[in-house]
What we know:
heterotrimer, A: mainly alpha, ABC transporter involved in vitamin B12 uptake, BtuC, 0% strand, C: alpha/beta, Rossmann fold, 8 helices
Amino acid sequence: MIRFLNLLFAPGFFQNTQVMNALLLGGVVAAISGVVGVFVVIRGQSFVGHAIADFGGAGAAIAVLMGINTLWGFLGFGVLSAAVVELMGDRAREHDLATGIVLSVALGVESLFLYLDTHFTGQAGAPMMILFGSIFLIKPSTVSIVVALTAATTVIIITIYRPLLLCSIDPDLARTRGVPVRIVSLLFIVLLSFVVAEGSFIIGALLSTALLIGPAAAAIRITHKLGLAMLYSAVLGTLAVWIGIVLAYDSFLWPPVRRGWPVSFFVCALILLFYLLTRLREKLPGSGIMMVRRVT
Amino acid sequence: MLDAGIFTQSFMIHAWIGGTIVAILSAFIGFFVVIRGSSFAAHALPQAGFAGGAGAVLLNINPLCGLAAFAVGGALLIGYLGDKERNDVITALTLVATLGAGALFLGLTNKYATGAYALLFGQIVGVSSDQVVATAFIGIVCLLCLAFLYRPLLLASVSREIAEARGVPVRLLEICFLVVVGLATAIIVPVVGALLCFSLLIGPNATSVYLTSSPGKAMALSLLISLVTVWISIVLAYISGWPIGFFVSMTGALLYACARAVHYFRVKNIRLKAGIIQC
Amino acid sequence: MISPVKVKKGDAILSIENIRVQFNQRCVLNDVNVQVFPGEFIGLIGPNGAGKSTLFKVILGLLSPIQGSVRVLGRAAKSGDRLIGYVPQKLFLDPNIPLRARDLVALGLDGHRWGIPLPSKVRKKRVDEMLKAVDAYRFADSPVGQLSGGEQQRLLIAQALLTDPQLLLLDEPLSNLDIKSAYEVVNLVSRIGREKGIAVILVAHDMNPLLSVMDRVLYLAEGKAVMGRVEDVFRNDVLSGLYGYPVEVLHVNGRIMVVGGNNSGINGYPLECNCCKSEAAT
């Protein structure tokens, strides 16, 4: 038994504080991403979710240049540009283009500052850290910030759960019921940018979409009960991150020796695996898929 | 400030030719990207291509092969899995799948500081003469495909139902279009970078729709804007040494803002005149 | 451009015999028979989910029935048949999309063909004529996305007419229009149909705007159909037989309403009208 566990968890796994921090943070962030992700999928905001991560990337690149914690960069720029996008376009397709233009500006700024980072701070790895994540390099001081942020997001989600759900499924009905749809949408996109910032911080700006969309898309294919979908989504996300961390830690012993495979790769691969499994399941009779299609 | 070298050095000549081809191609492809509202796919495919390029750097083969393989593969995946209502989720997952592979390639290679950065941010001064030939060839193929698909694609973009009733194979058409976009991004990415390929696809057409409503004029205008954007960016990148993608996105956004301002005042004027007539 | 097909008097343009359509064991259309003759205006009426869109797909050759035959001018239905013009419910377009009204109509002429269109005088003349025929010439150069629902509907009709069809299918063209525009669209379609001898099938929730122009009505419910003149179809016994439970046809100020339930005066609600139905259900 112990030999088997040793095979699964490479030596020193449980003694390493970095790994413990990574497990804690990864679990918390994956869980909240899973819950918020279900809303994102229902509202059809995958593109916005991904764009927020890129906005945040620009902020993080600036933060590296100024020598402050990248989390603040992700957060600041993410929230700011998400609000701009929400206020810029009303109709669906206009929204698409508005997001596109703001995104393109953010990417321009991001690429400039990443370039400046490599030239002026001497951190050649900065772009890779921002774009592809650095879960093992998180400072212990940041852990409490992320946990606090997640707690705040959870509380707000619980508070606005029902109006948000109504707005997501039928904005017109919500309006007739007196729900301030505009405000709820704005609030949601701010929460979304919190969650995306955390995701970008741990698995990178380019890949935070994996945590946000992947588990949610899989969960919605398993169940048509929304609350249950959120639970599944959170569990799937957390599992993917934890197994990913274990594998990444183990991979230091794999070829090419001593380089280690990136955590982000394992997380993405696992999430996709989950999603593809749920798609296979759909081919079997008796699954509750038709219901979900109708709801969304 | 501007020395003659910008036009005479051989690598700059390559840059001018490559940049011009890329500008022409992205103007026409961008027209359909904007009309179909498929910005997300236009954003995802270059990044998929980047992952392929990173893989090519790892395996020491021509980056263009990796770029084309991943971008076209991504396009096929989006086209094949994407049912109508969940298209954005499928696009997001395709993006994640390819970028996850990209993260692995980058993690395993030692050379990412040069090869991969060039693909991410664009390295127009690094365009070789072989690459110019490949760019021209793929560019012409893409333009021919687009001309062939033009009318049914326009019809399907305006109304999927009419196109189906007319016997147009709509799904196949959509997949073909995505493949053309994928192929085009394979040549755009080395020039302007994976992050900003998207700006060049969206920017000029998003700008021209505010200025004209005729499809022909919109395409001509986009072509002009696209060429101006790329040329200005080449000059500025040459002078400053900063990544070209930054200038592409800034020029594009500036022109977009101008077009929206012009549109705003035009609409206001029309309303004012209408008001006077009513009085 | 397209050689006109000679239609002998008395020959049906569309003839559907005993068709049955199923999705995953669920029967959507069962034993439906339809005959449509040149120049006829048919109103296709029925509640949501009765199979109206499915019937259109069958006529357009996009779905094949598991049993029965569908013939358009004596030939089996096939997809892309130029003799059928199709008008979708509405357009979903961005207001700034770079497409003018005339570009949309021109797509009706050759939108299904590969390659880029070459400028031609004949093409422009045909498009202009059609724009005038549907009274849309004055906004020919306006962006499609900024036109009203009624104006867009005229353009959709124009594009469907450009292939010189013998049969025009309109899928709920009135559902997004105000009452005035709805009457305008109905009168336009009816006038063009009579002038050119085109048979028209128009899907509607509410049959009242059609009452003055409709030659016959095709009523679909529960996957079954009855067809006949208005006064022969809108009868308590005919529709009750179709629905399989008692329904009542009410005549109020020259308008017709079909109401379900036994105590129709208290619990009844109009069966075709979608909005009323959902309210009644809640």
